[in-house]
Amino acid sequence: MAIEKTLILIKPDGISRKLSGLTIDRLDHAGFEMIGAKVVSVSDELAHKHYIELKDEPFFEPLMKFIQGGFHNNYKNKVLALVYQGENAIEEIRKTVGATNPEEADPTTIRGSFGRVATKGHYENVVHASGNAKDAARELALWFKPEELLD
Ligand code: TYD
Known about the structure:
Blueprint: E1 3-10, H1 12-16, H2 20-29, E2 33-40, H3 44-50, H4 60-67, E3 79-87, H5 89-97, H6 110-114, E4 116-117, E5 123-124, E6 127-129, H7 133-143
Antiparallel strand pairs: 1-3, 1-6, 2-3, 4-5
Bound molecules: thymidine-5'-diphosphate.
The site of thymidine-5'-diphosphate (TYD) has 9 residues, from loops.
């Protein structure tokens, strides 16, 4: 199996609900190695580029607001961006993170344990994890410079 790198974002709901440490703990104990980390203020441009494939979805507008901290602005506009590396990391970390809809996610996953469907309808699911190899490569290039990764 291939050694892969994958992008994790602890989203504004995770930051505001103090779930960063717990998320990192679960990823570390799932057997993966952290090779990059930084707190990022998400610009409109970065938000749009990151979620470009979803631009025609009905939830795109609230998603842009959410990822830029618009629903958690007591904590400003902040996400924690992480890169993890390991064998089959993309698929395995998606299993640790859980399904997109937190109501449907297995309760032992991060999203199943801590996510919620907000009253406005969008999902506040605590973490992002790259979905496949193509997205991982695109997202890593968007969020990190090569020299920021200690692999
Ligand atoms: P998506 O890329 O489909 O899922 P994932 O994050 O699991 O790769 O969607 C991106 C984010 O958009 C998702 O994490 C939460 C939000 N979202 C909604 O708010 N409502 C929805 O119906 C969907 C499908 C996603």
